[in-house]
Design goal:
It is a single chain. The chain is mostly helical. It is built from ten helices and no strands. The longest helix has 37 residues. The N terminus is likely disordered. It comes from Cryobacterium cheniae. InterPro entries: PAP2/HPO, PAP2/HPO_sf.
Length: 324
């Protein structure tokens, strides 16, 4: 009987013992500082403000108008542009066969490569709306360039020797840049930086080839890049507003593009921009002298094209970073 009594007492004491242990554990948990849990807000493309694309489009229009008013409508601008065009004789002697082959292949290569790359990326990402927008703005860029050059913009005869017909903006450069824009728009956030770098290099190569082969002046090429940049901003507006917005998809985020691509573009852009500015100043002050320096003007034109292409590509990465 004593054994049974001790067993009953132990059974009655067990719940009290367990409760005391749980109470001590709870008190210890309360005494510990609470861990802060990060919360993330998943936004969609329909919540992105379109102001960034409106500002980008306005900036492209302003720079385009400034290029046209100075390099096409003024005597000093025409003289500087023509000096770079004349200095391209050095490029024609050195890379004419390669430049000619490249220029001949630009339209076909751009269309085929653009169709293949955008098609493959769209199939992988399963985003047909973006594909339609990309093709639409690329076609609009090409058509608007031809409309501007053939019908709306004129080149006055201010007495500058050289080709007096209007070639502003460049059609070949527009085709190359428009195909690159289409690939850039359908690319994923993680590959968008690489698409921008590759597309910028392709458009720059086509633009420099038109200058080296004597088809266009530097301002023509940069203007073509700005036309494509404008329509890229239009694509951003369409993709963030209206029935074409990609609602419900997570954003790419600020760090979606590889930082290495940004650093590489900046490291290339800065020295080219410095050389372009220096060459412009030297050419400007020597344009109406005895030794105008056509080679310096040509180097300045090439570096200006490279700087414009990389700068627009880098800006595009920043503008489209929030888009999925």
């Amino acid at each position: 009987m004593p054994c049974l009594r001790r067993s009953f007492r132990a059974a009655r004491a067990c719940p009290r013992f367990c409760a005391s242990i749980f109470k001590r554990y709870a008190d210890a948990e309360r005494s510990q500082p609470r861990r802060r849990v990060r919360s993330y807000t998943v936004r969609t493309s329909s919540t992105i403000s379109p102001v960034r694309y409106l500002v980008g489009a306005f900036a492209a229009i302003i720079v385009f108008a400034g290029l046209y008013l100075y390099f096409v409508r003024t005597l000093s601008g025409q003289a500087l542009d023509q000096l770079a065009f004349d200095g391209a004789e050095f490029g024609r002697r050195s890379v004419t066969p390669l430049a000619q082959e490249l220029l001949d292949a630009v339209p076909l290569v751009s269309v085929i490569a653009g169709l293949l790359l955008t098609g493959v990326v769209t199939v992988v990402r399963r985003n047909g709306k973006t594909l339609i927008v990309a093709f639409g703005v690329a076609l609009a860029a090409v058509l608007s360039t031809q409309l501007l050059k053939m019908a709306l913009l004129t080149r006055p005869d201010l007495g500058v020797e050289g080709y007096d017909g209007n070639s502003f903006p460049s059609g070949h450069t527009t085709v190359a840049a428009a195909s690159a824009l289409a690939v850039f728009l359908v690319a994923s956030p993680r590959t968008r930086g690489l698409a921008a770098l590759g597309g910028s290099c392709f458009a720059i190569l086509a633009g420099v080839a038109t200058l080296a082969n004597g088809w266009h002046r530097p301002s023509d090429v940069i203007a073509a890049l700005l036309v494509v940049a404008l329509w890229g901003c239009v694509a951003g507006l369409v993709l963030t507003r209206g029935p074409w917005s990609r609602g419900g998809a997570p954003l790419g985020g600020r760090n979606a593009h590889p930082p290495a691509v940004d650093r590489l573009q900046r490291r290339i852009l800065i020295p080219f921009a410095v050389v372009a500015i220096a060459a412009f100043l030297v050419t400007y002050f020597r344009a109406f002298g005895d030794t105008p320096g056509t080679l310096i003007a040509y180097i300045g034109g090439v570096t200006a094209i490279v700087s414009a292409g990389l700068g627009i590509g880098l800006t595009g990465i920043r503008l489209f970073a929030p888009l999925p």
